[in-house]
Amino acid sequence: MPAYTMPGLMTGQNTNDIVKKLVELERRPIKRWETENEYSKAQMQIWGEVKNLTTNLQTKTRALVSFTAPFATKSVSSSEEGVITGEASRAAKSGNRALEITEMASKHQLSGVAIDTDIRLPEGNFTIYSGKSKETVTFPGGGLPELTNAIKNMAGGLAETSIIKIDKDSSILTVTSVKTGKKNELQFSDPNGILKLAGLVGENKAGLENTNQLLSLDILKSKVWEPTKFKKSETETEKLVQTEEGISIKADTSFSIPIAVTEIKERAFVEIEVVGEAPAVMELGIGFEKEGSVRNKFLPITKTESKYIFPAGDYASDKNLTTIILSNAATTPVLIKSVTLVTPPPPGTAEPLKVLQEGKDLKIKIDGVEITRETNDAIADVLEGISFNVHKVTEKPVSLKIHVDHAKGSALIKEWVDAYNELMKFSKEVTSVEKNGKISDKKESDDSKAADISRDFWDNKSKSGILAGENSIQRLIASLKTTANSYYPAPKDNGFKVLTDIGISTGAVGSNWEKIQDGLLQIDQERLVSVLSENPDGVRDLFASDPNNDAKMEEGVGIRLLEILRPYNQYASGIVTSKVKLLEETVAGNNKKIKEHESHLISFEAKLKQRFLYMEQGVGKNKSVGNYLQNNMFRGNGGE
């Protein structure tokens, strides 16, 4: 009788091999879930890149539709290189202006005389003046280094100091104004003689008195001032009245009163004295001549005792005072006793010993008109919409050129086109379909070690995009193409209606049709530069315009593109966010299944081993019984 054995053992396989094979077969669901996770993670990466590219295009588009988009930025230059630089706003008029720089603004530079390097200076105070500013320095005493540190710490906004060592025993203190210009020259008050001992200034003199000039107001030639605010001004019975005590200005009236033309010096002020009751605050003003026209300054002034002090020098220094503006918003008349122009003396009471360089103003001529300014930089009040810096004196007149700067607008548009093309190209790649690619029907034997359920899937995915058939991306591609090729109403007669008008297209005439169909944009740089130079506002309107004049951009390539991109990039409920969240949930679910199945495999393998142990034990017993029976039967037959 033949011995009873397991089928696996008959083929030469031991029990452990059989168990491993069975466990491996039971593991197949894990491979499927792992493959799904690999696919989901790849999709998440793709969606992440879609978000990056759509956000980038969104950012570049917003830069184009912004109110500050620099399509109409103009630049400033000179026919002689290095004379002038600057920028011009869209309000500046293009063209050339005759320009001549006759003198540059400079700083006030002073030098002391040589003194003992080891000198000890007493404690005390001194004051430094520059223009309308002043700083009082409290000096604790010490040598020249301590003096320069004190000036740096307490008056560093007005003056810069340094020590020059002449020889081993002697040094010189130098001081330079921080600001350029004649008005910013340094002046000093030295009551304790500190700066004199430092060799910088001479003897401190007593201060001079103010110069007072009584102004005569011609009320017969007065004119009503702001009648809509001071409503009784035009009433005949409410006019100004001259009395022995002064001028009476009635309630709720205001007038501009001419005076003899008088020059306003630096720091000068108008002192208006009243008699009797008067409001704590009155609105007062002046009229003055500036650059060929009459200007007015009108503001509320607080009363100090019986006087109102109007700081005329702050607004019209070195200009001609022509009128005084009086108003009365109170309910009772106000009696003006006198109006006086007060000119304080120069603030400095100690003269510098040596002037290395005087403070000078910038002197320029534009179209033959001479203009002075305190500084060489950021001059923005000479020509409308223009700010420029002056760098050197000209030997002869040059041209100031104001022209459209197309570089910034061109760069913005190029960045936008690049962002558009990157998104379009990537979207087409990840949704492409290989028409000839088919999933193989060939199946390998389960006994083959190469068997893998994910293999055919990834073979097919290598022939098509990972998001092939994804409707949301295909809609995005179609919308981008439609937006780039649509017609847009031009708000102005000379405006542009399609992107091809400004040199942006999917290909020149006669280009390969397949490339045109790809939808990638190309720039005709020559055409773009031309339209940006000639009609920058038209280019801007093509990307964003306000057709109904409600101060809201509602039409244009950029506006429509932002509407298309918005659903993809919304933080909470955007398309990309929703897709990624769904994929994350899929991966989390599969990971849970994998973990549970791996726990199952441990117990499954243990059960198999236990069963095979019982079977092997049974086989062993059967084999022993068989041998016994066979031996006994052989003996019985042979023995007889």
Protein described:
With 640 residues, this protein is an alpha+beta fold. The protein folds into four domains: 40-68 and 408-431 and 455-568, no CATH class; 75-102 and 361-403, no CATH class; 107-207, no CATH class; 211-343, Jelly Rolls (Sandwich), CATH 2.60.120. The longest helix has 65 residues, at 575-639. The protein is elongated and about 165 Å long. Mean pLDDT is 84; it is low at 1-12 and 435-453.
Helix and strand layout, with pairings?
Blueprint: H1 7-10, H2 15-26, H3 28-65, E1 74-78, E2 84-88, E3 95-103, E4 107-111, E5 115-116, E6 124-130, E7 133-139, H4 144-155, E8 159-165, E9 170-180, E10 186-189, H5 194-197, E11 211-214, E12 223-224, E13 241-242, E14 247-249, E15 253-263, E16 269-275, E17 281-290, E18 293-304, E19 307-310, H6 312-316, E20 320-328, E21 334-343, E22 354-357, E23 362-366, E24 369-373, E25 386-390, E26 398-404, H7 406-431, H8 455-461, H9 471-485, E27 504-505, H10 513-518, E28 522-523, H11 525-534, H12 536-543, H13 557-569, H14 575-639
